[in-house]
Amino acid sequence: MAEIRLLVDTPGGAASATNLLLQELVRGARVDARHAPADLPEGAKSGSGTTIAELVLNGTLSAAAAGAVASVVSAFVQRGSARKITVKSGEDEISLEGVDAASQKALLEAWLRERGD
């Protein structure tokens, strides 16, 4: 399975919004999600830096897990009108914002299932 990354785009409180989404994914969707490691500039000392507004889903996503992730992310976007979530896997990406929740969930679930095997 390719690595799945979620980028949170929200004005102001990106750190708190990302932490909230992380909690919801771990508790609600029951997936292994973590803050993405920060890409360090060349020559920088290695450390434990993380990217505040980016999460990584670890492991394979079953059909049930893909549905649960899609539900959590869709609900998260719907609760904050200015929020946008971009989900990436390799060179493929999909962005969710401002579309009705049912359409977002169905689209993201299908997208995740294609990449979850």
Q: Would you kindly provide a written description of the structure presented here, covering whatever features stand out?
A:
There is one protein chain. The protein has 117 residues and is α+β, with helices and mostly antiparallel strands. The chain has one domain (4-40, 48-115). 41% of the residues lie in helices and 27% in strands. The protein is built from 3 helices and 5 strands; from the N terminus they run βαββαββα. It has helices spanning 14-29, 63-79, 101-115, and strands at 4-9, 32-37, 50-58, 84-89, 92-96. The protein has a 5-stranded antiparallel β-sheet with strand order 2-3-1-4-5. A hairpin with a 2-residue loop joins strand 4 and strand 5 (92-96). It starts with a strand and ends with a helix.
- SS-based structural class? alpha+beta
- Straight-line N-to-C gap: 6 Å
Strand content: 25-35%
Unreliable stretches, pLDDT < 50, 5 or more residues? Answer: none
Number of helices: 3
The count of β-strands is 5
Domain module tally: 1
Output the strand order for the largest sheet. 2-3-1-4-5
Mean pLDDT equals: 83
Radius of gyration: 14 Å
- Shape type: globular
Helical fraction equals 40-55%
Largest sheet: 5 strands, antiparallel
Spell out the helices and strands N to C.
Answer: EHEEHEEH
What's the short version?
With 117 residues, the chain is α+β, with helices and mostly antiparallel strands.
